[in-house]
Amino acid sequence: xxxxxxxxxxxxxxxxxxxxxxxxxxxxxxxxxxxxxxxxxxxxxxxxxxxxxxxxxxxxxxxxxxxxxxxxxxxxxxxxxxxxxxxxxxxxxxxxxxxxxxxxxxxxxxxxxxxxxxxxxxxxxxxxxxxxxxxxxxxxxxxxxxxxxxxxxxxxxxxxxxxxxxxxxxxxxxxxxxxxxxxxxxxxxxxxxxxxxxxxxxxxxxxxxxxxxxxxxxxxxxxxxxxxxxxxxxxxxxxxxxxxxxxxxxxxxxxxxxxxxxxxxxxxxxxxxxxxxxxxxxxxxxxxxxxxxxxxxxxxxxxxxxxxx
Length: 309
Description:
It is a single chain. The protein is of the alpha/beta class. The protein contains eleven helices and ten strands. A hairpin with a 5-residue loop joins strand 8 and strand 9 (251-252).
């Protein structure tokens, strides 16, 4: 059993703008892809800035799918930045070269958006196997574009973080050691810079869980996560300071619980909605936990902000 948890102060509102994506990665716990049509409605999108103000939330974390494909993405970013809120764009890099997105990188830079970019390895073979043919080359081109605008460059104030996911059923290596390897390889081979590498553990849900079951590795992977659970990571798990909003506006304790259909805890079986945050502070609420939560506490820990220790 995973230990019980309660929410602390709400610091980050993570909003899934929809499941449509220009990629369909093998490890994707959202099962996003070009065929997905789910998208946050305009009236729900309009609640986001109101909630940011009502709860005095410091960070808006935009995810998907490819969040940039939502027609309201840029308007929402502008509103949040006008409120002084930090905005994170969870970017897959290839979106920067999609038709109609030629000015996207410039927009992100102009608004001072923090870019958290997926790059599961610094070699083409690994990235293309996990994410699709040609993705590595387009990702490098996207990083060059961002670097050219000042992202990842000292003193620019434009933050570019990279995200690593293991390519199979294993824990990520130590974050700082892997970060040093990324810095060396990307600088020497491509002349690229970034701010920080974030290591994320693959969660045994949705597409990755299906992959594990097909290979007969599901039970072994769960056992691996349980075996490496560390109580010391519980204080820093993201669900204690973050709440996740799905494409229908319902609240979940994290992005992974969202994909499993687990509503935010402490609501007596009800499905809390984004609008509820206008009048209610969720601090102190119970957090819905299950066996997959060991993915956040195993080893050095894992969250949307990378390793916990």
